[in-house]
Amino acid sequence: MRVGKSTFLHLCLAFSLSLILILILLTLVSAQEVDSLRSSTDSAYTIPDSGLVLVAPVTSLIAEDYKYDDGEQLKLSWVPSIDDQLVDSKVLGYRLFRSIDGGTPEILAKLPPGTNSFLDRTVQRERKYQYYLETFSENFVVQSIVTAAISPEREWLNLDRGWLFIIALFISIAIIFFVEKAKRGHKLYVRKIAGLEAIDEAVGRATEMGRPVLFIPGINDMDDVQTLAALTILGRVSRTIADYDSQIFMPVSRSLVMTAARETIKTSYMAAGRPDAYSDDMVNYVTDEQFGYVAAVDGLMVRERPATVFLLGAFFAESLILAETGNSVGAIQIAGTARPAQLPFFIAACDFTLIGEELFAASAYLSGEPRQLGSLKGQDVGKGLAMSVIILGVLAVTIATAWDVEIMHNVHNWLLGVFSSN
Amino acid sequence: MKRLVPLTITFIVGFVLIFSVFLPPAEGLDQTFTLYFDIIAVFAFFLGGGNLMRVHINKLRRQKKDWGFSVVTIAGFLFMLAAGLFKIGNPGDIATAVDTQGSLFKTVFDYVINPLQSTMYSLLAFFVASASYRAFRAKNREATLLLIAAFVILLGRTPFGMMVTGWIPDSFSIFQIPNLAIWIMNSPNLAGQRAIIIGIGLGVISMSLRLILGVERSYLGDDNA
Amino acid sequence: MEHVALWVAAFLTLGIISFLYKDNPWYKLCEAIFVGISAGYWFIVLFWDNIVGKFWVGVFPPKELNDVGELVNSVEPDYWLIVGAVLGVLMLMRLIPNIGWISRWPLAFIIGCTSGLYLINYFSSNMMRQVQGTIMPLLGMNYELSTYDIIGNIIIVIGTFTGLIYFYFSKEHKGWFGRAAKVGIWTIMITFGASFGYTVMSRMSLLIGRVDFLFGDWLGLIN
Q1: pLDDT score for A114
Q2: Is residue B186, in this structure, part of any structural domain at all?
Q3: Which domain covers residue B31, as residue numbers?
Q4: How many CB pairs (< 8 A) connect A and B?
Q5: Which of B122, B141, B169 is the C-terminal boundary of a domain?
Q6: Is the pLDDT of residue B220 over 80?
Q7: Which of B122, B153, B173 is the last residue of a domain?
Q8: Which of B13, B209, B210 to mutate to test the interface with C (most CBs of C within 10 A)?
Q9: Same domain for B203 and B155
Q10: Residue A13 has what pLDDT?
Q11: Number of domains comprising chain C
């Protein structure tokens, strides 16, 4: 069959057109592929026709066991989408999905942009968990890889607190060492503490004046270590009161403190050989309400006019109201607290103030028992350690930064590491 | 025996809680303790509340001085117990919280307890003034330092501080009172706070050990008691 | 009703303030009301929160219907809470004279818990962190520290160090040790002064609040 010239030309034209069309299509498709590839790795862009705001997924998603817990947490971390920007961010947030033992993934949390970690506290040791994150813009969602299956593990020892344990153990051993040493008859020197030396004199004054001693053990309950300190001091003070045949009254704001205080005073009166002089009425409950208690104690102070007032324990805003009222009735006042914010008011309004550590040392000091005094020596070992570390650390960081001495950098970093163990 | 059991309880419980900090499986024990404590504290209130009633009933019975006020205290106490236990005037059923707005319990809190609290608290303004006056009269070096620091911080927190020292050139701006106040807060104040706080940490270790080891046991009463 | 309540609040406010003049029947009345009402208030709050909210609901959790229509516990009951209640009941043994000593057991339990908990907590937050915070450079080289910052750092280090010397129990405050302790107590006094000065202003604002109530809310003299 012969093909005509015009037919041939038409065929050539059709072929050429088809070729051009195919080429155009191919170009378009490949361009789209390149762009979609770029959208998932470089930056967001909007396809003009579709209006989609494409965003890249998060990368490096890792699920790992949370260290030093009872096997009840898993830690997730990731690098946020590169489209997650501080300003004009295309990313509106993330959705975290979790599947348990290979089951259907369910949404676990919705997280704001900028988030790069998550602590899953709702896991169990006997289950396996997988996670993935969805990054979403206003109309587009992209998924990250799915993490490998993982179960939380239980750790028996918290190694993060290793140094805390070692240093606390060191100081505790020092305290026990000196307690034992004192028990064996070694004489230990403890300097005089003015506020505590004044206690006998203050109680004696109350006896001479025929007026009572008022003891306030702070306003916190027995779950505050300052209240315990106050009760241990009460043990010594009430012994002196029993010996001097003076009177004590003790309004308290907590029922448990009332019970413990009665036991303490009763013991002292027994030890002084005057059980008959003890009465439960020495300690009375007033109210748990902070200022209600203060109103009652203020009233008591002006009516009973105590010769001596002890304000020992945990105090808050009421410290100054009590101390000033005590001052106005002419009482000798011995105060002490471990709350630094209240100490200035006691300093201004009281005759003697036990500052922080002195409050905890007071009962040991007052007991005069060698074993108890030994514990104060142990405390001083702790202070010596703190002072040595401060000197060493300050020298190391100063030399390290001024002359760039590497070994000093190492010493400084090591000390920071050790003392950040908590 | 009467002492041995409590001493053993303190010893065991104390050490278990110390070690719980380092043993992850035991870490929740502190919360369990808090729960137990909260429950015990309410039981103890029966003793405290009972004591409050007893003291005031005795005063009333013996017609002691000011016994009339004891009547008010007893009445107030019983009134509040009734209002709270029976949830009087609660808008809603018995399941709603006791301090729901509109209940008698909440109304009494708002119009009786609250103004009393706030007023008692506000008395501090007068007491601060009298304490400042006393500190001002103190003559020793320590009290003078306290006073100077207090004065600088006080002025530094008011516009007056800038008015007085605003003329000082910028190169010596540290001597402008507001800046000096900030410097005192950040340097010497911090140093003193640190010494006190470190001391407290050590004091607590020592006292806690004395209690746990039974070296300090005055709170436990006597065997013959 | 609200009008009456406002007058009651004003009456109580003035009654408390009257104490500044001297102890008087008006203050005594306010005090009696305050003690009675507030003791009752706290008992009720603790009762509903702790006994009902924590103990009862913990041991006997509310029931709910499950998928197959059975009535089941909404959460697992925590029977360990009964230990707390038993300790609480032991506390009440004080009321029975012959076995009153049993109440020392719950007390011993609380003392053991408080001591054990605080020992490490205080040590960690008070000693470890504060020592770490005091390790700071005393020279400005390679640091962007102003002269004032350096002087500040030096004062912090010396002040903390000498402050600790002040609290030292094993050595008498004599000679160089005594002088160092003296510097320590000066630093501590400046700290107290700073704290005092810092609080004065806020205390004044409390009074202003009450004056505002009396002359604004109650008398309507100021807006």
Answers
A1: 93
A2: yes
A3: 4-122
A4: 212
A5: B122
A6: no
A7: B122
A8: B13
A9: yes
A10: 54
A11: 1
Q: How far apart are the CA of B48 and the nearest CA of chain C, in angstroms? A: 9
Q: Is residue B145 part of a domain?
A: yes
Render pLDDT for A273-289 as a digit per residue (tens, 0 to 9): 999 999 999 999 999 99
Instruction: Name residue, tokens 């009430």.
Output: A238
The whole-angstrom separation of Cα A325 and Cα C28 is 16
For residue range A216-232, list pLDDT tens digits in order: 999 999 999 999 999 99
Q: What is the pLDDT of residue A34?
A: 41
Min mean pLDDT across A25-39, A218-232, B28-42 is at A25-39
Pairing of strands A308-314, A129-136: unpaired
Whether chain B has a CB inside 8 Å of the CB on A200: the answer is no
Q: What is the mean pLDDT of residues A85-104?
A: 93
Across chain A, mean pLDDT equals 88
Length of chain A: 422
- Segment B56-64 shows an average pLDDT of 94
| C93 lies in some domain | no
Domains belonging to chain A, first-starting first, are 59-143 (2.60.40.10), 188-368 (3.40.50)
Three-class DSSP category at A48: coil
* Dist CA B11 CA C19 (whole Å): 47
How far is A328 from chain C, CA to nearest CA, in Å? 11
Task: Specify whether B104 is located in the same domain as B130.
Answer: no
Nearest chain C residue to A256 by CA distance is C107
List b or e across B184-214, with b for residues whose CB sees 16 or more CB atoms inside 10 angstroms: bbbbbbbbbbbbbbbbbbbbbbbbbbbbbbb
How far does Cα A411 stand from its chain's mean position?
A: 27
User: What DSSP letter does each residue of A298-340 carry, written as one string?
Assistant: HHHHHHH--SEEEEEEE--THHHHHHHHHHHTT-EEEEEES-T
Residues of A in contact with C19 (CB under 8 A): 298-299
- Minimal CA–CA distance to B38: which of C80, C120, A222? A222
Banded model confidence at residue C1, pLDDT cuts 50, 70, 90: low
Q: Which partners does chain B have (≥3 C-beta pairs < 8 Å)?
A: A, C
* Interface contact flag, A266 B199, Cβ < 8 Å: no
Whether residue C203 has pLDDT greater than 90: no
Of B197, B205, B222, the CB nearest to A171: B205
Q: Where are the alpha helices (DSSP H) in chain C?
A: 2-17, 25-46, 57-59, 81-91, 104-122, 129-134, 147-166, 175-212
pLDDT computed for residue C69 by the predictor? 82
Task: Say whether both B192 and B147 belong to one domain.
Answer: yes
Residue C176: which domain range? 137-223
Whether C39 sits inside 8 A of A391 (CB atoms) is no
Specify the 3-state DSSP secondary structure of A151.
coil
**Mutation target vs B (from C94, C189, C218; most B CBs, 10 A cutoff):** C189
The 10s digit of each residue's pLDDT in C5-22 is 889 989 999 999 999 999
**Within an 8 Å CB–CB cutoff, is residue B121 touching chain A?**
yes
Residues from chain B that touch A390, judged by Cβ atoms under 8 A, are: none
On whether any CB of chain B is under 8 Å from the CB of A152, the answer is no
The ipTM estimated for the assembled molecules is 0.93
